[in-house]
Amino acid sequence: MEMIGFLERHTGRKFDMGRFMEVIGHANRGVTLWREIQELRKASPCPLSALDMFTGMFPIVTLRGTSDCVEFYREMRDELAARVAAGVGVLEEDRYRLMWDNIAIWYNFRFYDYIHSRGGVFVGETYTSAWGVYQFDDTGSGDIFDSVAHCYSITLLNIDLDLRFRQIADMIRDYRVDGLVLHSNRSCKTYSLGQLGLARRVQNELGVPALVIEADMTDPRAFAEGPSRTRVDAFLEVLDQRKSG
């Protein structure tokens, strides 16, 4: 409530609780649709890969709380449901169902296309799923401001590694993931911290192979595409051996 008073004084505008709750409602509906979209990706063949999700996530990031965001994801959800019903996937067959950890390598989507060409499809990402994990409690059963504060305090980068591991483990199980690819992202140390430990736990405790790719989400100088592709090739060979064994 102190923040409301501060903002009213410095903006000269009165806080509108009705408008605030309208925005909260739009935000919750957008999150619900985003979750439904993620759920549809459990289908095989997977109807959307990381490329689609990394580009399709912008409304949930920049337009959350608007009716435009809700309408965009309603149409996206319906189109995706139709693809699943028709058996249309990113690939005809998910040879390798993969999971991506961390932010995208924004300047080099060719890297994901290369993985597609090898039969791999990313069926889930920790980054895109994080935008649909929590919803505000707008039922009137509690303090809406406490709910907002709670949701923003337990976002992906504010939780400990044990909880991050449990979230990854749940996704690996629910999306039937064959292998985990972790992007060690130099421009986001908070996200990348602990990834080597997470990779070891995924391999040792879940029996799922993990690959760490060193890169950067914005600086192409930190990404060696040739060696990275070679590491991907070796990683997919490991997955092949597991499938054949």
Task: Describe, in short, the structure shown.
This protein has twelve helices and four strands. The longest helix is centred in the first third of the chain and has 24 residues, at 17-40.
Summary tags:
four-stranded parallel β-sheet, globular, alpha/beta, 245 residues, 4 strands, Rossmann fold
Report on this model:
The protein has 245 residues and is of the alpha/beta class. It has helices at 2-11, 17-40, 50-56, 58-62, 67-86, 110-117, 126-130, 144-153, 161-174, 189-192, 195-206, 225-244; strands spanning 96-101, 120-125, 179-185, 210-215. The chain has one domain (2-244): Rossmann fold. The protein has twelve helices and four strands, in the order αααααβαβαααβααβα. β1 (96-101), α6 and β2 form a beta-alpha-beta unit.
The outline comes out as: globular
User: Which assembly state applies to the chains in this document?
Assistant: single chain
- Strand fraction equals 5-15%
> Share of helix among residues?
55-70%
CATH class: Alpha Beta
Cα Rg: 20 Å
Overall tally of domains: 1
Poorly predicted regions are none
Q: Distance between the terminal alpha carbons, to the nearest Å?
A: 60 Å
Structural class: alpha/beta
**CATH hierarchy: architecture:** 3-Layer(aba) Sandwich
Give, in spatial order, the strands making up the sheet with the most strands. Answer: 2-1-3-4
Number of strands: 4
Query: Helical region count?
Result: 12
What pattern of helices and strands is seen along the backbone? HHHHHEHEHHHEHHEH
Give average pLDDT, whole number: 94
Determine the CATH topology: Rossmann fold
Main pleated-sheet profile: 4 strands, parallel
